[in-house]
Design brief:
This protein is mainly α. The protein has five helices and no strands. One of its GO terms (molecular function) is protein C-terminal S-isoprenylcysteine carboxyl O-methyltransferase activity.
Length: 147
């Protein structure tokens, strides 16, 4: 985030015409805002749908109240919290017209979610077995190169 702030500041100083604050929002910034809102919406719908099954900590022990959520948005997106956060994150940099940070945020967050999904799904397969295998096979993550 620090890099993004520095990039925005330097570019606004050197090339003030490409940033949001100079003459209104261009099409790129409007696209970024739309992605920020879309990402936040996907994430929040996922949280509300999963209710107590949504946590920020990956569970490594199954709780008797732990259920595999496959309805609502989870019917179409296997990890809506991750997808939403990814879209939101990249969208913030598109909104700010930060070309270097767009690429950096996309790569860093993609790597983070690739590793996190692999780790989390290891436990989901242990907890739910075949039921999770079937669900994962039919429901994509929608994250680039993460089936």
């Amino acid at each position: 985030m620090g890099f993004a702030i520095i990039e925005y500041s330097v570019e606004a100083w050197l090339l003030p015409g490409i940033k949001v604050g100079s003459g209104g929002m261009g099409y790129v910034s409007w696209l970024g805002l739309a992605l920020v809102l879309l990402g936040e919406g996907i994430r929040k719908v996922g949280m509300l749908t999963a209710q107590s099954n949504f946590t920020h900590n990956i569970r490594v022990r199954r709780d008797e109240r732990h259920r595999l959520v496959t309805h609502g948005i989870y019917r179409y997106i296997r990890h809506p919290g991750y997808l939403g956060w990814y879209i939101w994150c990249v969208g913030t940099q598109i909104l700010l017209c930060n070309p270097f940070s767009i690429v950096a945020f996309a790569i860093v967050t993609w790597r983070f979610f690739r590793e996190r999904i692999e780790y989390e799904e290891y436990y989901l397969r242990r907890f739910f077995g075949y039921q999770y295998e079937v669900y994962a096979a039919r429901t994509p993550t929608w994250l680039p190169l993460i089936p």
